[in-house]
Amino acid sequence: MATSLISSTTAFIQLKSHVDYPESGVLSRVIWKDDICQYSLFCLAANTEISEHTSTRNATVQVIEGNGVLILNGETISLEPGQFIFMAANAPHALSATSNLAFILTLSSAL
């Protein structure tokens, strides 16, 4: 199992203290993972793009800081702090960071 930011003996963390932007590209860290869900902190450098892809699992994105654009099923969604987005399994999506961007990605088993 990958090292997680939270363990079975740690019930909480301060997310902002773990936000660390790379000079370019994407830095991700697993917050917690079990057989049903995976919670990951993603930090994208400004001007980073993630090309269109899909996932076999349901997902949510919760923006912590920064700005970007998510294209989900062809719809353009502005990413800004506080934004919460649900993505159904197999939904095509792509993302670009217009500034340094941090968000939590939750993957869960599709029913």
Protein architecture, described:
The chain has strands at 26-33, 37-44, 49-53, 58-65, 68-72, 75-79, 84-87, 93-97, 101-108. By secondary structure, the chain is an all-beta fold. The protein has one domain (23-108): Jelly Rolls. It has a five-stranded antiparallel sheet, with no helix packed on it. Strands 3-8-5-6 form a four-stranded antiparallel sheet, with no helix packed on it. It is globular, with a radius of gyration of 14 Å. The two termini are 24 Å apart.
Provide the fold topology.
Blueprint: E1 26-33, E2 37-44, E3 49-53, E4 58-65, E5 68-72, E6 75-79, E7 84-87, E8 93-97, E9 101-108
Antiparallel strand pairs: 1-2, 2-9, 3-8, 4-7, 4-9, 5-6, 5-8
Features:
five-stranded antiparallel β-sheet, four-stranded antiparallel β-sheet, 0% helix
Order of helices and strands: EEEEEEEEE
Overall mean pLDDT: 94
Largest sheet at a glance? 5 strands, antiparallel
At the first level of CATH, what is the class?
Mainly Beta
**Principal-axis shape:** globular
Summed up:
The protein has 111 residues and is mainly β. The chain is built from no helices and nine strands. It has strands at residues 26-33, 37-44, 49-53, 58-65, 68-72, 75-79, 84-87, 93-97, 101-108.
